């Protein structure tokens, strides 16, 4: 957070979340403001509606979006709303390059039938992030050694 502030990069964190008393579709569910804290025995399961709205607004004018990691426990239908909303938003960004990296994020966009609406889908989420950091990836390094200059 301090690095983002030093570089004058806006860092959007959830302002509200969906919490549950257990890790189950049958759980009791509440939406709370993050500033109020999570009650003992409860867990965060998804981003809340105010956060979804803020993220959608922030994404609207983006030209490139890289998404790694679902917004919540999308595998449980009760907590798939945030991930679904963000996936649909990315799929609707027709003038942007959208990249989804990571097995769970890819599973979410595929489950929603949106993978074909994303510019690039990669199951290698960690490798995608490392590549963007400028790190040498072992597979890419081998290709460069075998076919220099290509």
| Number of helices in the DSSP assignment | 6
Count of strand segments: 6
- In angstroms, what separates the terminal alpha carbons? 38 Å
- Structural class call reads alpha/beta
* Whole-angstrom Rg: 18 Å
**Share of helical residues:** 25-40%
Extract low-pLDDT stretches: none
The chain-level mean pLDDT equals 92
- Side by side, the strands of the main sheet go 2-1-3
- CATH H-level superfamily title of one domain: Phosphoglycerate kinase, N-terminal domain
CATH-derived architecture of one domain: 3-Layer(aba) Sandwich
Outline type: globular
Q: What do you see in this structure?
A:
The chain is an alpha/beta fold. The protein has a domain at 49-146: Phosphoglycerate kinase, N-terminal domain (Rossmann fold). It contains 6 helices and 6 strands; from the N terminus they run H-E-E-E-H-E-H-E-H-E-H-H. The chain has helices at residues 2-6, 49-59, 81-91, 103-111, 125-133, 138-146, and strands at 16-20, 29-33, 43-47, 64-68, 97-101, 120-122. The strands form 2 sheets. It has a 3-stranded antiparallel sheet with strand order 2-1-3. A 3-stranded parallel sheet has the order 4-5-6, sandwiched between helices. Helix 2 (49-59) packs parallel to helix 3. The longest helix has 11 residues, at 49-59. The N and C termini lie far apart (38 Å). The model has no long low-confidence stretch (mean pLDDT 92).
Task: Summarize, please.
By secondary structure, this protein is α/β, with parallel strands linked by helices. Helix content is 36%, strand content 19%.
Task: Considering the chains and any ligands shown, give keywords for the structure.
3-stranded antiparallel sheet, alpha/beta, 150 residues, Rossmann fold, 19% strand, single chain, 3-stranded parallel sheet
């Amino acid at each position: 957070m301090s690095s983002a502030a030093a570089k004058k990069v806006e860092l959007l964190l959830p302002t509200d979340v969906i919490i549950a008393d257990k890790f189950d579709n049958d759980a009791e569910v509440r939406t709370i403001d993050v500033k109020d804290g999570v009650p003992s025995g409860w867990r965060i399961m998804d981003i809340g509606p105010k956060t979804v709205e803020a993220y959608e607004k922030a994404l609207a004018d983006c030209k490139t979006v890289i998404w790694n990691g679902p917004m919540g426990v999308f595998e449980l239908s009760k907590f798939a709303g945030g991930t679904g909303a963000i996936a649909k938003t990315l799929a609707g960004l027709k003038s942007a390059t959208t990249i989804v990296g990571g097995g769970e994020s890819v599973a979410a966009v595929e489950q929603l039938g949106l993978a074909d609406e994303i510019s690039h889908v990669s199951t290698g989420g960690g490798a995608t992030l490392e590549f963007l950091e400028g790190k040498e990836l072992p597979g890419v390094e081998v290709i460069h050694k075998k076919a220099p200059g290509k």
